[in-house]
Design brief:
The protein has 284 residues and is of the alpha/beta class. 33% of the residues lie in helices and 17% in strands. Bound molecules: iron/sulfur cluster.
């Protein structure tokens, strides 16, 4: 089935987000989904527009809140594959609390962050992923704050699936998204997705020079958490591939009593007017 729709993305030519969109569409098709089985929930930012560019259920939410919405959708309808997406400002600044708690909750949602180390939609300010010394309109003398190490943070928060990719590696990125969708629990996929308009430091060439593929590290085992953390620290977080996966831990859905039998979407919630009014009164 085709996950493309007729909406033309209004991202700048060359923006890394185009590849992420293509990878989501390909991965969804490759795992055998049809558009009615996928929901893409996004936050605010250039990347937040992605939910409107994919032929599926979609919800363009509010800043930093794609994950609360995505988790609500998944809890209401377990039969939907739910992808949450947004930028690094969305997920690692205003939405960081939601990110950490969704990770430790291990709810079955795939979260794809388009990480360009800057705020693009608001025309170029420092984000929590910008490096020290990074000059923008908000930091004309260079950022004095250190960059958030998101992959390490995810591991310490108890993530069961942590991966990273580069938007030009379409094949690898697609394969990681497929794995994330198939993972029974929360999967975080951080994608280096260059902002060609405002970030003149972390360019395509810069990433090509600085990224290391985990597949090229002999003996790398994504089931070894200690090794995963060590490798991230040794490479300053600049690695791509499946960093860590734990398939043993149960997902939130597996642990919620009665979830699989009676998700909201298939529950019989027909109420008489009297019952409805009584319910409303209880909440007032
Ligand atoms: Fe992409 Fe940057 Fe343009 Fe936004 S401003 S669409 S992030 S290139």
């Amino acid at each position: 089935k085709d996950f493309r729709n007729s909406v033309k993305p209004n991202w700048c030519p060359g923006c890394g987000d185009f590849s992420v969109q293509a990878a989501i569409q390909r991965a969804a098709a490759n795992v055998g989904l049809v558009p009615e089985e996928l929901a893409v929930i996004s936050g605010i930012g250039c990347s937040g527009r992605i939910s409107g560019y994919i032929n599926s259920y979609g919800f363009h939410g509010i800043h930093g809140r794609s994950l609360p919405i995505a988790q609500g959708v998944k809890m209401a309808n377990k039969d939907l594959t739910v992808i949450a997406s947004g930028g690094d400002g969305d997920g690692f600044a205003i939405g960081l609390g939601h990110t950490i708690h969704a990770i430790r909750r291990n709810i079955d949602v795939t979260y794809i962050v388009m990480d360009n180390q800057i705020y693009g939609l608001t025309k170029g300010q420092t984000s929590p992923r910008s490096d020290v010394g990074f000059k923008t309109k908000s930091t004309p003398q260079g950022s004095i704050e250190s960059s958030l190490s998101v992959m390490e943070m995810a591991l310490t928060a108890g993530a069961t699936f942590v991966a990273q990719s580069f938007s030009t590696d379409l094949k690898d990125l697609t394969a990681l998204i497929e794995k994330g969708i198939q993972h029974k629990g929360f999967s975080l996929i951080n994608v280096f997705s260059p902002c060609v308009t405002y970030n003149k430091v972390n360019t395509y060439d810069w990433f090509k020079e600085n990224l290391t593929k985990l597949n090229d590290i002999e003996g790398y085992d994504p089931h070894n958490k200690v090794k995963a953390m060590q490798t991230l620290m040794e490479h300053n977080g600049l690695v791509t591939g499946l960093i860590y996966q734990n398939t043993e831990q149960k997902s939130y859905q597996d642990l919620v009593h009665g979830y699989s039998e009676t998700p909201l979407a298939t529950s019989n919630i027909e109420l008489t007017e009297e019952q409805f009014n009584k319910l409303v009164k209880e909440f007032m």
